[in-house]
Amino acid sequence: MTVGQTRAWDRRWPALGREVASLPAGPLDLSGWFGREASVLLEIGSGMGETTAQLAHAAPELNHLAVEVYQPGLAQLMMRAEAMGIDNLRLLRGDAVVLLERHVAADALHGVRIFYPDPWPKKKHHKRRLVQPEFMALVASRLEPGGRVHLATDWENYAEQMLEVLSAEPLLRNVHDGWSPRPEWRPSTKFESRAEEAGRISRDLIFERR
Which residues are annotated as catalytic? Predict the structure, then answer.
């Protein structure tokens, strides 16, 4: 990590962050951690936090929870949150599957976002992709009725896989006919701009819990 990230980690992590592997058994006490009762939105894979910080800032009425394995990314997100005066964001470092299976109750989440997950572009590595039937069934079970899962990717064959997986999940229905129009509220990042420069088109999918 950079010097700034290390300082942010030492200063802010004790209050804002937790390790998934060290969580006590059972569902997280999110209202206690956030200090209020509010609907919870989970972002899986927050990266360097550019989008996460902007969306948390734009929706102060929601409790935003981000899970990520990359420590410098979480540290950078805390720096962004501090600079923007965000207090409705908490961070978890570790495996999203373990988090959802062991520490999130059924019907507990207002929404789940998975933006630009690792595409594992080689065909032999597709099995490593996050968006698989078993995982999306788990995600769907943690959404409240009417809660939404929103995915975005710039890899065409991954987008098609996402559409196939989500369409086959009985707990979910597509909010749109196929791809979602790109929401104006989803920030455009440098990552997305570079993808467009390389000729890759971003696609969004929004499904709702039945």
Answer: 118
